[in-house]
Every structure is written in C-alpha cells, then in structure tokens.
Write a structure and sequence with these properties.
Layout (H helix, E strand, L loop, with lengths): L2 H30 L8 H26 L18 E5 L6 E5 L20 E7 L3 H15 L4 E7 L4 H4 L29 E5 L4 H10 L5 E5 L11 E5 L9 E4 L8 H15 L6 E6 L6 E2 L2 H18 L2 E6 L5 H11 L4 E3 L8 H7 L2 E5 L3 H8 L5 E4 L2 E2 L5 H11 L3 E3 L14 H14 L2
Parallel strand pairs: 3-4, 3-5, 5-6, 6-7, 7-8, 9-11, 9-13, 11-12, 13-14, 14-16
Antiparallel strand pairs: 1-2, 10-15
Helix pairs in contact: 1-2, 2-12, 3-12, 6-9, 7-8, 10-11
C-alpha cells in the first residue's frame, strides 16, 4: 500500500478503537437498562454494530500487519506499477486524466485514484422460490447489506421435469424451465460481486457461476450442498448437519430474515388485531409431517389440549399459524379445540402475520420438527417452548439442534406451563454475514 493508504488505515483503526468501540459499548449498556431484551431494538442494533466494529478492527489490523508500504516519492522509470501515477489520453477527444495505482482499501479515496470495484456491493440471490428456502438466502443477503452498502437482486429458478431428476453434474442452464429467471449473466453483462444461493435447484448454477465468473463473483451456498464444500467459495450450513471445512461457516439453525427491526416494522400493520389481546400473548408455530416426524390427528388433540390449558390457565391469548406440511386432519382438530380462545388462528389468506405475531408474543411454542422455526423463534429473545411430535425415526440432527438451543438457554421442552426466562437472542445470520464479508476481502 502507499504511505498515504497506510496513514488512512491507521487513522481508521484509531477511530474504531478509541471512539467507535467505547461508544457502542456504552450504547449496549444503556439499552440493557431498558429491560426486556426480546423487544429492545436499540440493544439488538447496538450488538450488531459491535460485531461489525470488531470485525473491522480485526480486518484492518490484519492488513496493517501484512502491509508492504511503498514510498511513491522514490518511484522512477516509465513502467506502470503499484503506486505509480500515470497519464491516460483519450485518442478520440485528446482529453487527459491522471490516475494513481493503489491498493483496494484506498479505492474510495478522492479523484485521481483508479477505482476498480467502487460502489455498492451487488448481491444476487438464487433459489427455487419456495419461501422457506428463499428466506435463508435472502436473510443472509440482507444481513450483509446491513453491514455494507449493497443492492440485492433475487432470481428464482426451476428445472424442467424431464431434467429435474438428473444429478447436479449433468444439469446445464438450457434445461431450466421457461418460467425461470435468468440467473447467470449474458455475455457482456457484469457479474455480481456476491452470489448467495440455497436449495438443491441452485447447485448447478452456483457451480457454473464460480467457474464462469473467473473469480469475479464470490459464491456462497447456504445449507449442506451434499458435495465437497471446496467447490464453492463459502458454505453456510446448519451446525446440526455436521459439515466441516476451512470454508464452512456453521450456524445454529439456518440463516433467516428475522431481526428486532423487522419484527418492529411488521407490528403496526397488525397492531389493531394483536395489540389489544390479553397477555400473556402466546405464539404457536405448528409444523407437520416429515421423514422424521408426524402430526397425527390424535396427537394434534393432545397438543391442542395442552396449549389450551396453558393459555386459558394464564388468562392469555393465542396467535397460531400452521405450515404447509400440517396434515388437514391435524389442523382441523386443532382449530376446533382452540377457536374459542381469544386471539388469531391464521387461515393462510392475506398478508402473512408471522413477523407481527413474533413481535407481539410473550411466549413462543414451536413443534420440534422444524429447525428453521425453532432458530427463528430463538432469535427473538423470548421464551421458546418446544412441542413434541410423533417420531417416525431417530431425531438425529433435530436432537442436536434442540440440545444446542437448550444449551444457549433459548428453549425448553413444553411442560404445560408458561414459564418465563431470558437469554441472549441468537444472531447467527449476522455472524454468518460478517464471515462472508471477511472471506471476500481475503480472496
């Protein structure tokens, strides 16, 4: 780096250590005094900024420790090299411009520098469009955008039925369904800086993006790709899947879009409906049948009775949503048993109230079959009660996830009582976003 670039980095480091770090520590301390961390947006924002500040300090210290400082005053000769100032002439207009060749951290300096890559980070999100899958990739992209200026472009893809069964290695973009968005840039179009994809349908395209972009695009795959993670620049995978590797970021649960700010923004649209409900307000997120768990009608009756007993015994209200996997018979008996309790049982029509429900909830009940729902609930800082399901096979990774959440103090098995406790809300998506940005600076 140039001497000027070194001085700039050193000044930034001093500012972060002597001003920004003490300021955010004070902000966290002040926010704690407001109590109830689960609905404390100032606390969550300060904690996220603290993580960013510490990441910046570590990054700058690393750059300074490895820096080779060039004294440009000692450069001579007519070669274009690092630190040199060159004159560029437009042959058509004969206009001249003078530019200095500098390091990447100096790109945003004033005019007269070569500004390769300046501007907001361009992020492309690629999934099959299913809400549960897309929210993981989009949640990670939004977390990155909260740390650095960025634009997010969402693309949804689907393979034609005749080719969907093929292994990843044999699929080509020409096999995509006509309804798919164009995910790979056409010839001459710019490549995104960051590619974040999730789900099986995106795998062939992620591999193609990494190969064709020639290093211009940093490719992140969310979820365990069930192949060598080294085929991607980075993989963000659930810790309970057990995937490891130098470029693997393991997170509790999966990335998602839930933040204190997002929940607070969703609240006003449902405030008239949910705000007046008697407390404690209890959210119930009900899953359904999978390869590991089932929700039979008989078991649904048991769960409904336990939920009703707890809510009615506390004089509270119920806000309940079902998933697409909830069997019709189970949903029907639960609706019949719980419809008399004050609250909301969402019918699936209109705007999804999930974020507002989590915002207004005092307690969250979650069936054990969904890793995503449990991790999202644990990101609120509110007590998470785990509802048992009918096991079809050993729970395996689900048992590991719930053990992790219990260790963190976020969840407990539901015993029919609405106990209250506090814990540090999960911030795994923000942590993964910091890891992505740090990895991008090292490539």
């Amino acid at each position: 780096m140039t001497s000027e670039g070194y001085r700039t980095l050193d000044a930034q480091l001093k500012q972060l250590k002597s001003v920004e770090r003490p300021s955010v520590i004070a902000a966290i301390s002040e926010a704690r005094e407001h109590g109830d961390l689960s609905e404390n947006a100032e606390y969550h924002a300060a904690k996220e900024r603290q993580g960013w500040i510490e990441g910046q300090i570590a990054e700058i210290e690393d750059k300074i420790s490895r820096a080779q400082v060039i004294d440009v005053s000692k450069l001579d000769g007519d070669q274009v090299k690092f630190g040199a100032t060159v004159t560029v002439v437009d042959e058509d207009t004969e206009e001249e411009g003078r530019y200095q060749i500098v390091g990447e951290h100096e790109l945003r300096n004033p005019q007269g520098r070569v500004e390769v890559g300046a501007g907001p980070l361009s992020i492309r999100v690629v999934t099959d469009g299913r809400a549960g899958i897309e929210n993981q990739a989009l949640g990670l992209a939004e977390a990155v955008a909260r740390l650095t200026p960025a634009t997010i472009d969402v693309r949804r893809v689907q393979w034609r039925p005749a080719f969907d069964w093929l292994p990843v290695a044999l699929k080509a973009p020409g096999m995509l369904d006509a309804s798919s968005n164009l995910s790979l840039p056409k010839h001459g179009e710019p490549w995104p800086d960051l590619w974040i994809a999730a789900g099986r349908a995106s795998l062939p395209l992620s591999l193609a993006a990494r190969k064709r972009s020639g290093g211009r695009t940093f490719v992140v795959q969310v979820q365990d790709p069930r192949m060598d993670p080294d085929r991607f620049d980075q993989v963000v995978a659930p810790a309970h899947d057990g995937l490891t590797g130098p470029n693997v970021v393991s997170v509790t649960g999966s990335p998602h879009r839930i933040t204190a700010e997002a929940l607070g923004e969703a609240g006003p649209a449902f405030a008239a409906l949910l705000g007046p409900l008697p407390r404690p307000r209890v959210a119930a997120l009900i899953g359904g049948r999978s390869r590991v768990f089932d929700l039979t009608a008989d078991h649904a009756v048991v769960l409904a009775n336990r939920i009703a007993g707890a809510v009615e015994g506390a004089g509270g209200s119920l806000m309940l949503t079902f998933s697409r996997r909830t069997p019709e018979a189970a949903e029907r008996v639960m609706r019949d048993r719980l419809c008399g309790i004050p609250g909301l049982i969402w019918d699936g029509e209109g705007a999804n109230p999930l974020f507002a429900i989590l915002h207004f909830a005092d307690h969250i009940l979650v069936t054990e079959d969904s890793a995503n729902m449990a991790a999202e609930a644990a990101s609120t800082g509110k007590p998470v009660h785990i509802l048992p399901m009918v096991a079809l096979r050993p729970p395996g990774k689900f048992a590991r996830l719930h053990a992790d959440l219990r260790e963190r103090g976020a969840s407990r098995p539901f015993d029919g009582r609405l106990e209250t406790w506090t814990y540090e809300p999960l911030a795994e998506t923000a942590r993964a976003a910091r890891a992505v940005l740090q990895a991008m600076t090292q490539t």
